[in-house]
Amino acid sequence: MMEAESVAIGVEGMTCNSCVQSIEQHLGKMNGIHNIKVSLEDKNAVVIYDSKLQTPVTLQEAICDMGFDATLADSSPQPVLPDTIFLTLPAHSALTPRQVCAALLRNKGIVDVKVSSDQRTVVVKFIPSITSGKHITQMVPGVDLNITVPEVTPGAWEDSSWSQGSSAVLRLKVDGMTCHSCTSTIEGKLGKLQGIQRIRVSLDNKEAVVVYQPSLITAEEIKQQIEGAGFTAAFKKQPRPLKLSGIDLERLRNAQPRSSEASQRENSSSKTAVFRVEGMHCSSCVLNIQSSISALPAVTSAVVSLENKSAAINYNPSLISTEQLRKAVENVSPETFRVSLLEEHENLTLVPTLVSPLKSVPASKEPIQPLTQVVVINIEGMTCSSCVQSIEGVLSQKAGVKSVHVSLLNGNGTIEYDPLQTSPEDLRCAIEDMGFDASFPAKAELPVAKAQPCPEAQLDSHKPEPPSKVPAAHLGRQESKTISKCYVQVTGMTCASCVANIERNLRREDGIHSILVALMAGKAEVRYNPAVIHPAAIAELIRELGFGATVMENCGEGDGILELVVRGMTCASCVHKIESTLMKTNGVLYCSVALATNKAHIKYDPEAIGPRDVIQVIKDLGFTTSLVKKDRSASHLDHKQEIRQWKRSFVVSLVFCIPVMGLMIYMMVMDSQLSDAHAHHNMSTEEMEALHSSMVLEYQLMPGLSVMNFLSFLFCVPVQVFGGWHFYIQASRALRHNTANMDVLVVLATSIAFLYSTIILLVAMAERAKVNPVTFFDTPPMLFVFISLGRWLEHVAKGKTSEALARLISLQATEATIVTLGPDNVLLSEEQVDVDLVQRGDIVKVVPGGKFPVDGRVIEGHSMVDESLITGEAMPVTKKPGNTVIAGSINQNGTLLISATHVGADTTLSQIVKLVEEAQTSKAPIQQFADKLSGYFVPFIVAVSVVTLLAWIIIGFVDFEIVEKYFLGYNKSISAAEVIIRFAFQCSITVLCIACPCSLGLATPTAVMVGTGVGAQNGILIKGGEPLEMAHKVKVVVFDKTGTITHGTPEVMQVKFLVEGNLLPRHKMLAILGTAESSSEHPLGAAITKYCKKELNSETLGTCTDFQVVPGCGISCKVTNIEALLYRKNRMVEENNVKNVTLVNIEENADESVQPALIIDAELPTPVTSQKYSVLIGNREWMTRNGLQVRNEVDKAMMEHERRGRTAVLAAVDGVLCGLIAIADTVKPEAELAVHTLKSMGLEVVLMTGDNSKTARSIASQVGITKVFAEVLPSHKVAKVKQLQDEGKRVAMVGDGINDSPALAMANVGIAIGTGTDVAIEAADVVLIRDDLMDVVASIDLSRKTVKRIRINFVFALIYNLIGVPIAAGVFLPIGLVLQPWMGSAAMAASSVSVVLSSLLLKMYQKPSSEKLEFRARGQMRPKSPSEISVHVGIDESGPGSPKLSLMDRLITYSRASINSLLSDKRSVNSVVLGEPDKHSLLVGDFGEEDDTAL
């Protein structure tokens, strides 16, 4: 008998999941290994092995041989206690007992197998953590093994029928989770454990709820597993101990005999059919088919074999035919199985009787039907439908529970159960274990006994939910279930991992048919069964996963709505005909046709029917139809309507203002002449009055009403009504909402002037005054002229600020050419359709010069495409089959056929437009301050105006000489009181006119609009004002390494040939190496193959056989059929030489010009004989293992490559070492310049990576970064960013937007780079469409320029108001500064326009060009020496803070650093890599090496 033991081995040097998989695969192939679990986080491997075949030392050596450092954490291994299970062999088995034993022993986890003396029972000892009783019964294909009752402890009975009922619920508080990736980690880790039935982790509540089987796993073990994942866990409520009642044990003992009888009875009238099933990949497919087919009422059992590709189904031929069975198997999800009936197995006698362990027949076919009882339990503590769902879910899983109905309203649950399997007390305790209070009603009624239904019905109640597609024969027996669809708005998603998390968890829930989550739109589309679950409960399930979720009421809007114009309808019967036909069409949800407007409004399901199909249905009825034209002109952005409105207002005001201004100027000239005459001719006051009244304009039409005042009044009224119409509407709306804006000030100033003048005039007429009163009828027209001019110019300028967005919108194509392809892509037909009618999957033809109407993938043709307006990439991009294209880009020189992947609102262009629109409407924090200021501004100005009025009235009456001296246009014919009041009114109205909150309000949004627009044109998408403002405050820029600083894929940097060219020509060696690595899935192998194909200019290589891979070491194989490839290459060289000869015009005979003497390494085209080459590619150890000596100079070259962070690989052909290949993840060419430029902008640059410290240091030295965080796991990057923020620094994180998304969200500014079409929009604040690091510089530079512009605008606005208001109030009267109201309004208009024009200057912004920056940085950029780079390893080590040193200390430190730098450069060449000479630096890290940290 085998003895199983477990040992933990510490493993150093693992960098990623690839290392984990390679160790697990390598050890898994060794004899005597039952199970191996490698943990990257814990850096260990736990191995369960047979102590007679393996020892801990041999396991440790096996891991060391792979190139990792392995240490035995515990020298004494732990014994693993096995469980025992008894299996009954069928009477007529195809295999002998000995063969069954041998088949069982071949499986992992089986410790020992013995056969009883009667050859009927097999006793199996197994390790419960690896396998289970249910799996053991399925291990021998074609033989049905039934579990019998053991005569030992019930501990082995994990798979018996009571195990499901003995579930316990555990609630744990979990601390240390930072994002949804953490919740997925815990769920994934616990979900794999034996005995865990369900688990849900909530990030918001910091809680884990686990439903588990205490017979298989304890609560303490679950807690330890969570803590092992790096989180702290504590019990919220202690779990109840497991109790087994006597009834449970009795049922177990009696279960088997009944089962056998039932199956025999069934088999008497049953038949077995064996099908061949193609398309199964794994045991998941096997279980899927078995469970789905076993669920059919007519099927007794189903046994599926993956090895034999067969399914043996025992069925009742009177209920179902073999053809229906075949279709049923084909319809099992994912509907890719190909099924055919094996004719020879049609007869029952040819195959043994089959009883599937999955089929729950025995309980239902008993001769005596048991009673069912109903109990009502009061439940307290339920808060929502989620509680109802969870109670029903847990109770329905308990054995013996037939149905559960929980009412939230009544606070109780009605449970129908089998008293032989469970009791009311057990049910009550189960509810309490979930954290609710449960009790029986005060007058507990006796449980109601119910007779069981017939066996047929009983079967149906037990059967699991059928698969999505059920065979036609079965549909009649099953009640038709309607599938509904709802949409849920989901917030808090950051990356694709969140999407997968929601989809995975919701698919498990009962009643959910399918779910599709869109990250960009933040929306989930759920198809569900309304009889089982409702939308509110679905939203609650998503909320429990830690996301925000709300059901979208207008969920039907958007995708499936069609507005059509229908021509040819004459009466109501036409309308009825269209509506009734459409409503009968599959996929049409709603239809309404209006005869009066000739319009049809149709809602449809895009998955069932497309817009073109709907149009075709209407056309088939004899009507013509077309789409309602949509406005694609971006007219809401160009402010045309506002421009037209203010222009009209300005023209009306101007027409009436010019005569008023003429009258005013005439009066001013006449007044000045009179005052001159008064000064020089000593005229008396009476003479003055006589002369004054003799003037034409002063002539009184009636007492108190002069011609001047009458004309002014006539001109003023239309301006007040028509010119000021918009102002009055806006002001009334503002006052209605208790706010005061610019319009309120304008209306106040003009209304006061108009009303004051009208009242004065009426009083003068009533008093029959001889002297005409002085009025302000000239003020409103002039105010309105200047204000409406200002508004007009402002809107013209605003239209310019949205130009970038309008240009993006105008890129959208209006029509598309859809083609139909026949076999071999032959063009059958093509038609022009509106772009809104393009459906996903359509083939669209794009001719040269045409716009791409939708996002898609090229399926035929080659062309160059101009994507400059979308990505900012100036050069055209080559497109060939397989490449993706973006809607709105322009095809240049070749016709392309593309398959539409994203249409309508889902295209990249639509998403960019939506993003820019949202950005321009979002407010920057500085703008919120301006808005707040504007709120107090208007009341303050009104108060200042009133104070000015009162102050001047008081001053005038106290000291009239001041007014007389400084009031222009004063003449003696007017009384002193009237002069004072007129002057006071003039000052207060001027204050109202000049004060302008508009310029304050416009300062930020105009600059943000222009900034985001300019950014979008340059391929920089900034999500609103906040990131734009925050980016200029950033002090630290953190770069991710892989995919950001580097390309993210390994490339061959250098190939060194170690043999003479005449022994093995270069092309021949490359052909051999490329062919050998073409079978490898390793990234290094892929890099070698790619390099060889490129060098040989060939897409096809030779043939590779006997391919073997040893993870961590290398590969060995045989290579043949490379001669044709070499011959083709030599022909190309030959042709090139012929061309060269022709070009140089060598005067020789044509036959001489093609002599092979010109050809390098050429071989004559002799008959090709295929030769076989034996190839080895790998590290030093692999060569040594295969008996090849690595020379010293080769070893030194490898060490030099490894010191530079490269991976050095050796290659041998036919036992001769012939090549050294250096591979590395190359640094992007612009990275060094980008880092240097950021540093010159005063920013600290940090590199953060999960890679080992040596590679990180090498990359950092190449790009000039001095601070590095290495070996940081993705989940810990968030903590690192937080750590930098805690030091008081503003952090920008630059990543590729997928695995870095939590860190992007945590940073003050998250910049996602090079994400192209699949923009990680949620997490990042700034999205760079192009994969160019210089755009990081540009985004920060643009932010700084924009914020600088905002500040200049604020200075304009504030200084203007601070200076203008006092001048208007008459403070500067002593120095002769006095303003008329019209001057104030002109100045006010000028301030608004000046702010907008200032913002428009941003349109001249150009990205810093690489050429200029390179020229500026010439001589300053240099690689950093290792001593200059400070490397911090892992999450815990934060570099020590630098103490403040004295000048002397600094000099000593600097000199010491210089010496160390020289020494370390010498030392590093010789000694850095000696500790680990044969590790792939891309795969394994050097954790043992001590890092030089900066002094």
The main sheet orders its strands as 42-54-53-52-43-50-51-55
| Residue fraction in strands | 15-25%
Report low-confidence residues grouped into runs of 5 or more.
149-165, 241-267, 345-370, 443-481, 1145-1167, 1316-1320, 1437-1446, 1456-1495
Strands, total number: 55
Q: Major β-sheet, in short?
A: 8 strands, mixed
Helicity range of the residues? 40-55%
What multimeric state do the chains show? single chain
Mean pLDDT: 75
Figure out the total of helices.
46
State the end-to-end distance: 62 Å
Which radius of gyration do the C-alpha atoms yield? Answer: 43 Å
- State the secondary-structure class: alpha+beta
Shape: globular
Features of the shown structure:
disordered C terminus, globular, 46 helices, 55 strands, eight-stranded mixed beta sheet, 1495 residues, alpha+beta
